[in-house]
Amino acid sequence: MTAVVHRRGRNAFIIGAAAVVVAYGIAEARPVLSVVLLAGFLAVTTAPLVLWLKRRRVPTIFAVLAGLLVDAAAVTAVGLVLGGAIAELGARQELYRTRVDELITNTSAWLASYGIETSEEILPGLTSPGALVEALGATLKSLASVVSRLVLVLFVTAFMLVEATTLRSKIRRVLHDREELTAIRETMREVKGFLAVKLGTSIATGILVGFWCRYLNVDLALLWGVLAFLLNFIPTVGSIIAAIPPVILAFVIHGPATALAVAGGYTVVNAIIGSLLEPRLMGEALGLSPLVVFLSMLAWGYLLGPVGALLSGPLTMFLKNWLAHTEDLAWVAVLLGPAPEGSAAASTSDGTHGTPSLPLPPDAETSAGE
């Protein structure tokens, strides 16, 4: 068993070193990869439509054009919302600054009545009331710059959709091992299932949240709906991040009661869709550890910018499922996944209690047997 542990440590070191090299390459290729990943996401979500049309004997060119029209409409809609939000944010920036100044003054006076003196050291972030507005504007401009490359993204998406119509036959010609074919099919099936469920639940989340913010008269309600739709692709933490800006804006403009109402609406929507609906549709097979979700969002965001952060869920899901179908790296997929159900009281086959064993590579099993 000691030999197995040493081998795992050696493999982990090699994997870590290789991951650093790959990460550096990804960061250097960010301008290209961000476009390719966005195009790939659009192609994967549109491919079922294209393949459905192909099965009904629609010529490939027309099937691909139909898919591109859907993609162009979706990306254009997001771009228009972001552009409108940037314009409205610029027009109302002074109002937001004034309201934040008033809140800081009133809060300082209230604290002073209890003998608590405030200063820039105590409230470093609040003493610059425009910081939040400027940060939000910078984020929106960064996302809009990605969307502005619509022509290039759609151009790449078109070629991907054409390839999607022949990809299955190409894979069959390259791979003759039935187990490898089964592993690839299983990985693609699970990732496509994840994206299909996430797309549907994200649309529902965005619509409900947008209408709720509109009902409470929160500024930029359409933007918050689109933001909830986009960030819902990040499991667990995405919905929390999406709720922060509208809650803060509602507090600044309307006060704590409206802010609590907005937060309550987000909580109810995410509880129903994220905690009840998604697990029923998706099952537990595609689960990720909450810590892995958060760290993957930071890592992909650092490497690829806003596109990497938004697609961190699908990217990590694909990586996890690919690793799960390898012999020597399947244990990494186990570490990326959630804790096994009832792991605290899990029993091994010989009746002892402990955590489930990680899959061993063939050479490790031989060493353990010796």
Description:
The protein has 370 residues and is an all-alpha fold. 78% of the residues lie in helices and 0% in strands. It contains 16 helices and no strands. Helix 1 (2-28) packs antiparallel against helix 16 (362-369), helix 2 (30-55) crosses helix 6 and helix 10 (237-254) runs antiparallel to helix 11 (256-282). The radius of gyration is 24 Å and the shape is globular. The model is unreliable at 120-129 and 344-370 (pLDDT under 50).
Keywords for this structure?
single chain, mainly alpha, globular
Query: Structural class of the secondary structure composition?
Result: mainly alpha
- Shape summary: globular
Count the strands? 0
The percent range for helix content is over 70%
The H/E string reads HHHHHHHHHHHHHHHH
| Distance linking N and C termini | 9 Å
The number of helical segments is 16
Mean pLDDT: 75
List the helices and strands and how they pair.
Blueprint: H1 2-28, H2 30-55, H3 60-91, H4 93-112, H5 130-147, H6 150-164, H7 167-174, H8 178-215, H9 221-231, H10 237-254, H11 256-282, H12 290-304, H13 306-310, H14 312-324, H15 330-336, H16 362-369
What's the gist of this structure?
With 370 residues, the chain is an all-alpha fold. It has 16 helices and no strands. It has a domain at 190-339.
